[in-house]
Amino acid sequence: MGNEAIARGALEAGVNVASGYPGTPSSEIIESLAIVAKARNLYVEWSTNEKVALEVAAAASFAGLRSLCAMKQNGVNVASDFLLHLASSGTRGGIVLVTCEDPGALSSVNEGDSRYFARMLEIPLLEPANFQEAKDLTRWAFELSEEIRNIVVLRSVTRMSHASGNVICGKLPVKFRKAHFVYDGSIMDPLRGPVISTPVVAKHTLQQEKLKRATAIFENSPFNTYSGPKKPELLLITSSACFLYSREAIGMLELQKRVGILKLCCTWPLPPKLLKKHLNSAGKIMIVEEVLPFLEENVKTLAAGMAGEIGIKKFYGKMDGTLPSVGELNPDIVAAALAKIVKVKYKTLSTAYTKELRKAAALIPARELTFCPGCPHRASFWSIHNAIALDGREGFVCGDIGCYAMGALFPATGYHTTPTLHSMGSGTGLASGFAKLAAFGFDKPILTVCGDSTFYHAVIPALINAQHNRADITFIVLDNSGTAMTGFQPHPGLTVSAMGEAVPSVDIAGICKAIGANVAISDPFDLEGTCKILNSFLADKGSLNVLIMRQICALSPEKKGKKIFDVQVNEALCLGESCGCNRLCTRIFRCPALTWDRSKKKAVVDEVICAGCGVCYSICPQKAIIRTEAKKK
User: Which fold has domain 376-550?
Assistant: First the structure.
């Protein structure tokens, strides 16, 4: 996998420390390194958030070690505060920030483009275009970092991180570095002085000199390559996975003799001499990239400055609408754009084939996003919805990012409770803000939810803010004992580290009590008890109330395949659509394990996927769903 190739490149570079925060599509980098941590004398950790992860990696760099920090695109925003200072202070041992981004938002709630941070903070940016380069470019990134004494950003995308390809591995180092932090030199001594970003102007000047050195190195980098005719009719400039799309599109249209491809792995700062050479070769230029026109903007800026030497060029890309500025690209999209520019016919699927494809697609059952069978979040939102309804004041939930983001969906078991959904921890900050609007006529009760990993990542400051400013909110922690959405990576609430070592856990309830909040703990599978606590909290005005709903994820390694109950439907008691409950179990509760038998017109439990939580037993008004203690296997 691309992420494994990145991890391998770091190992070949002699990485000593690796840190990160789980986030698809980046998680496998740290996981791959954690597996070999003891064998390769590495320190690997899942940090509480991306800013802390980068600080941990930077400390290693300051001590002369090589370090890697991995995150997804959202995480770069979190880490950017420290990243700004780190870019100014400079580094010592090689340090690489890997950002794995998600064009098309395949597993995200945005498709943020972090490349702009490289330009804004004046640090080098590298983008591998295939799996071999994912390894080789990572290794080279450490060397570049040490040559210019600054952090280097390596950007991957989902189709690079999660796709697979063949990689020729290099040798692993046999010597290991020893940490040694020196700080007895002058303030401008990069290797012996204090590692700080002042004096600001002098350090900023030095930072820009480092960037110029990177530019000179990029001019002759073997990772920037050209293929095609000497004088192409159209020049494609591309990077990352878009190189693969571009190469395939040219092959599909048989344009190898008419169209050339300049593949750039060093995308910031751009090498001007290399660009000048290739811009001179063609009158038409097409920029292929994901997601925003970052490369296009920078190429056009260089071309404008060279106009007297290379002439006026015709550019195609995102800015003129040739390519979309949202979503993923693919070979078909690139081929369609190419065909239009060079005026060749692009053979799409035949009408007959498309017609048959639509017929086949119509036979596929509609599958909406929903919580897994046995997911504690389904039960949690059921209780939250009912508590709000019983309260009668039209309260609502400020949401957060995680599996429970589906609380914002309706009717996919979100029960229409969550009208806001933003970044990690923002639900609590928003709730704190809503709760202070009483002076403006706002009187609805405010609830907010977050997961256990998110609590440590970003919620604690917002929760302290709510308590300090007397925000009347009900704060709910959906504690399923792990970072479930990204693969059950450990967090500070657990007793195991990324490397499998025993570590002390940090108690969520203890933290909340320490700041003065009222705290209760419930099992979300206990619908009646949970709803009762919620209603008492909603009635308790003027306080910060915290409910920790604690139930392990049904898919966690500890619980997967282990049922609490055996569940089935008593057909004699099930009244189906005559019940008067509007088929509460299959239309509203909507557990995938509860299905509707159209022939019998009865609810049925799919025993294959039923997780045995038994919550559906509590919601059937006819008690037609029965549960018995599961037999131990």
Answer: Rossmann fold (3.40.50)
How would you write 249-287 as a 3-class SS string? HHHHHCCCCCEEEEECCEEECCCHHHHHHHHCCCCEEEE
**Dihedrals φ, ψ of 360, to 5°?**
-65, -40
Return the CATH number of 565-629, one of 3.30.70.20, 3.90.190.20, 1.10.10.10, 3.40.50.10540: 3.30.70.20
**Cα–Cα distance list, 590 to 234, 405, 593, 617 (Å):** 53, 16, 8, 13
- Residues in a beta bridge with 522: 549
- Residue spans per domain, the chain: 2-219, 225-342, 376-550, 565-629
Q: What does residue 479 show for φ and ψ, rounded to 5 degrees? A: -90, 100
Burial profile 614-624: b = 16 or more Cβ within 10 angstroms, e = fewer: bbbbbbbeeeb
* Residue 390 bridge partners (DSSP): none
Question: What pLDDT was estimated at residue 590?
Answer: 86
Low-confidence residues of the chain: pLDDT under 50 = 412
User: Distance between CA atoms of 612 and 554, rounded to whole angstroms?
Assistant: 9
Q: List the helix and strand counts (H, then E) for the chain.
A: 21, 21
pLDDT of residue 410: 56
Q: Which residues pair with 152 in a beta bridge?
A: 96
Same fold, 225-342 and 376-550: yes
Beta bridge partners of 236: 261, 286
Q: Residue 259's beta-bridge partner residues?
A: 234
- Tell me how far apart the terminal alpha carbons of the chain are, to the nearest angstrom: 36
User: Which of 423, 431, 430 shows the shortest CA–CA distance to 454?
Assistant: 423
Query: Following DSSP, what letter does each residue of 329-357 receive, concatenated?
Result: --HHHHHHHHHHHHT-------HHHHHHH
Could you give phi then psi for residue 432, rounded to 5 degrees? -60, -40
Q: Rounded mean pLDDT of the chain?
A: 92
CA 304 to chain centre: 36
Please report the pLDDT score of residue 588 as a whole number: 84
**366-388 burial, b for 16+ CB within 10 Å, e for fewer?**
eeeebbbbbbbbbbbbbbbbbbb
Query: What pLDDT is recorded for position 354?
Result: 82
d(CA 257, CA 261): 11
- The b/e string for 272-304 (b: 16+ C-beta within 10 A; e otherwise) is bebbeebbebbbbbbbbbbbbbbbbebbbebbe
pTM of the predicted protein model = 0.91
Cis peptide before 52 (omega within 30 of 0): no
Supply the pLDDT for residue 541: 85
Question: Which residues have C-beta within 8 Å of that of residue 356, sequence separation ≥ 6?
Answer: none
**Which position has the token pair 């697979």?**
164
Provide the token pair at 274. 């290399």
Yes or no: say if 238 and 212 are a contact pair by the CB < 8 Å rule: no
Residue 366 in tokens? 């509609």
Class in CATH terms, 2-219: alpha beta
| Rg of the chain taking only CA atoms, in angstroms | 28
In what helix (H) or strand (E) does residue 237 lie, and over which residues does it extend? strand 234-238
SS3 134: helix
The CA-atom distances, in angstroms, between 611 and each of 277, 355, 508, 517, 616 are 62, 40, 27, 34, 11
According to the model, what pLDDT value does residue 581 have? 82
